[in-house]
Amino acid sequence: MDGTLVETEEYWGEAMFELAGQLGGRMSAEARAATVGTSMRVAMDILYADLGVTRTEEQTRADVEQIMDAVARRMSERLIWLPGAQELLAAVHEAGLRTALVTTTPRRLADLVITHIEAAFADGPFDVTVCGDEVPARKPDPAPYLQAMAALGVSPGESVVIEDSLVGVTSGLAAGAAVLGVAGLQAVSPASGLVQVDSLAGIGLPELSDVLAHRRLAESAAR
Questions:
Q1: Is the pLDDT of residue 127 over 90?
Q2: Does residue 167 lie within any of the structural domains?
Q3: pLDDT mean across residues, the chain
Q4: CATH number where 57 lies
Q5: Pair 90, 49 in one domain
Q6: What pLDDT sits at residue 142?
Q7: What is the maximal distance between C-alpha atoms in the chain?
């Protein structure tokens, strides 16, 4: 969702930079990039280590709430589709393909984005939505995508995951799916079953079929 369908990653960055300033420091660009796609707990650990500060559990919970509130305010004010994302989602939806939104974002915030996305369609484009607080383990664990596939009634071998983060790509590949990686804040190393593109502009059903074919060829070559 964040950084793949809509441009919300900048909101998380802005909120974390604000918190860093309040804690008396400045978050580095490298640390910010490392937080992309992670859970809030992991993101907080990265931020604190970057600043060289120690926070209690109570302080950490307050910091998380501050960031989530700041992101929620930004999301409610404006959401921007990333290039090609709305067109690809429309093509997949019109073709009748089973579709899930799988995000590390908690349901509280994800619903703000989901409502915005659904407003662009006559009926909801997703058959299933899976949020970060609804899974037994978060990305890079395969659990979120396996949960979505089970709910959709599809197998990993016939699934394409679209991701922009390292943890997301890792999760999708570990779940056994083919993965289309969209360039984002993080560099993702080439891997079997992964096809990388600069953006979703110009990506349609034929390109998704090519991603599946790439995965199958890689599996055949590995045998």
A1: yes
A2: yes
A3: 93
A4: 1.10.150
A5: no
A6: 98
A7: 54
Residue 168: how many other CB atoms lie within 10 Å: 32
**Does residue 68 share a domain with residue 21?**
yes
CATH number, domain containing residue 176: 3.40.50.1000
Domain boundary among the residues 77, 100, 124 is at 77
Strand residue runs (E) in the chain: 100-102, 128-130, 160-163, 178-182, 194-197
HEC per residue, the chain: CECCCECCHHHHHHHHHHHHHHCCCCCCHHHHHHCCCCCHHHHHHHHHHHHCCCCCHHHHHHHHHHHHHHHHHHHHHCCCECCCHHHHHHHHHHCCCCCEEECCCCHHHHHHHHHHHHCCCCCCCCCEEECCCCCCCCCCCCHHHHHHHHHHCCCHHHCEEEECCHHHHHHHHHCCCEEEEECCCCCCCCCCCEEEECCCCCCCHHHHHHHHHHHHHHHHHHC
Tens of pLDDT, residue by residue over 30-66, are 999 999 888 899 999 999 999 999 999 999 999 999 9
Kindly report whether the global pTM for this prediction surpasses the value 0.90.
no
Q: With 0-12 CB in 10 A as exposed, 13-18 as middle and 19+ as buried, what is 196?
A: middle
For residue 183, give the DSSP letter. Answer: P
